[in-house]
Amino acid sequence: MADTRKIYVLNGPNLNMLGTREPEIYGFDTLDDIADRMEDVATRAHVELDFRQSNHEGHLIDWVQDAHREGAHAILINPGGLTHTSIALHDAIKSVTVPVIEIHLSNPHKREEFRHKSYVGMAAKGTIAGFGPMSYMLALEAALEL
Description:
The chain has helices at 23-26, 31-44, 57-69, 87-94, 119-123, 134-145, and strands spanning 5-11, 47-53, 74-78, 100-104, 126-129. It has a five-stranded parallel beta sheet, with helices on both faces. The longest helix has 14 residues, at 31-44. By secondary structure, the chain is an alpha/beta fold.
């Protein structure tokens, strides 16, 4: 379908370890489990998802720029630990016109103090956090309303 909207879902460092990494914080769902649930909703909404994960900051920056060049409808991003450290990712988001929604499985404000500041959130249209895997679904619903 040529007129299908495309939404990028970008995932940062260590999110490939979901399901086994600190399940008391992140739960037992894998990134593939989350992607499958999102794909079901996207298909019904006639939206194409481009779901990606990397442990490398530069890949995420390249993908933000790719989404812009390709005229994506939105970018959903869980930047992982880069949330609190990456001014480069902040700048990449600020440099594009695609709306960006930041996602977090946990609520960073209920965790260690160093997690309270989000450089990504400062550049994003909005943030959805603290609802586990449902954070991704809520972000997708928000993106579909944009």
